[in-house]
User: Fold these one by one.
Assistant:
Number 1:
Amino acid sequence: MHCPFCRNPDSRVIDSRTSDDGLSIRRRRQCPKCGGRFSTIETASLNVIKRSGVIEPFSREKVMSGVRKACQGRPVTEANLALLAQEVEETVRQTGSSQIDTNEIGLAILGPLRNLDEIAYLRFASVYQAFDTLEDFEAAIEQLRADHRSARTVEDASSL
Ligand SMILES: [Zn+2]
C-alpha cells in the first residue's frame, strides 16, 4: 500500500492490534521516506451471493437494516442491532467459507433475533421463511411456547 502522504510504495509496520471481536487486525504503519504515520485494517474477505446472483461484500449494516424493519415498535436499540449483526458475522465466518448466500445469513439471524425479541423474530421469520398461512405462524408460536415450557422446567428443577 502506498503512503497516503508521499505515495512511497513502502511502509513499515510499527504496531499490530487485533480488534476486540477478533475479526480484523489494525496495523499502524510508518513511511520510511516522509515519516508519515497511517493505519490499515485487514479483514478476511467475506462475500455474499444474493438471490439474483450478484456478489457483494458482507455488510453488518445490511444485516442491521434487514432486522431493523422487523423490530419496528419493539424495545430493541441500535446497540442491540449492532451486537446481533456482530454475532451474525461471527457465525457465518465460522463456516470457514469466504462466500455465503443470503439464505445462510437469514438462518444466522434467526437464533440471536429470537433471544432479542420474539415478536421481531416472528415477523422476520414470516418474511424470511415465507410463511403464507396462519398455520405457519401457529407452528412457529407453538415452538416458542414449547421452548418456554422447557426453559421453565429447567428453572423449576434448579430451584429445588
Ligand atoms: Zn510517505
Note: The first strand starts at residue 12 and ends at 18.
Number 2:
Amino acid sequence: MTERELLERFEETVGKDRRIEPRDWMPEGYRATLIRQIAQHAHSEIIGMQPEGEWITRAPSLRRKAILFAKVQDEAGHGLYLYSAAETLGADRDDLTERLISGRQKYSSIFNYPTLSFADVGVIGWLVDGAAICNQVPLCRTSYGPYGRAMVRICKEESFHQRQGYELLMTMMGGTPAQREMVQDAVNRWWWPSLMMFGPPDADSPNTARSMAWKIKRHTNDELRQRFVDMTVPQAERLGVTLPDPGLRWNAGRGHYDFGEPDWAELKRVISGDGPCNAERIARRRAAHEEGAWVREAAAAYAAKRAAGGRAA
Ligand SMILES: [Fe+2]
Ligand SMILES: [Fe+2]
C-alpha cells in the first residue's frame, strides 16, 4: 500500500472510533504525540508518589498508614502500565527515565507543591486524584488501544483514591477546630494548582485541535476544567469547606459554575522548573534511579542466564 492509502485507512479507523493497535501503521506525528503524552503521564504517576509518600511514616494510625501505602503503591503501578504502553510505540524505558531526570520531559506541575500537613493527603486524594479522574475517564476511549486499556484500570484505582481522600477529610472535619483549620488551609493551597492540572486555556493550547482530530484527546482543557469545578463545588459544600475563589457562583443561564482565572504565569513558572519543589522531586527521582542500578543489572543478568539456559536445553 502507498503511504496515502495507509493514511486513509488510519483516518478511517480513527473516524469510526475503532482503535489503533501497535502493529498498525500510524503517522509519525501521531506516534510522537502519544509517546510524549503517555511518557509525561507515566512520569507524573511516579513523581506523584513523592508528596504523599513523605507522610507514610507520619500517618496518624495504622489504618491511615495502610491506606496511604496502598495508594502510593497504586501510583507506581500506574506508572508501570503507562511506560509499558509507551514501549508498544517503540519508546525505550531507559531513555524516557533519562529524559525525565535530565528535565527534557515534563510531568504534571501539581507534584511540585509541598505537602505541609496530613490534611494535604486528604486534599490530594479529593482534588488532585479528582482532577486526574476528569482528565482520564475520557482517555479510556482514546484512539490508541494499549493507552485506552491501561486507563480503564487506572481510573478504577483513581476513584478509590478520590474516595479515601474525601473520607479522610470528612473525618477531620468532624474533629477538632484545629483539624478543620488544617483541612481549610490545605484546600486553600491546593485549589488553584488543581485547576491548573487541566493545562493552559484552550486559546493558549496549540496542540489540542490536532490531538482531538486524532481522538487522542476527547475534550478540551477548558471543558474538562469546567466539569471538574461543577463536580467539586457540591462536594466542598457537603464537606463544609470554602473554595478560595470569590468569583465562584452558579450561573443558571449557562447551567455551570462560573469561576475565577487561575494564575497562568504561576503555571508557566512551575512547568518551566521554578516551582516550590521541582529540584527536590527530580533529585529524589535521580537518586532512586541510581540506587536501583544494581537491581536492573541483576535482573538483566538473570534474564540473560535464563535465555542461555533455554537455548542449551
Ligand atoms: Fe495514578
Ligand atoms: Fe491516584
Note: Residues 75, 129, 132, 158, 161 surround fe (ii) ion (ligand 2) (CB under 6 Å).
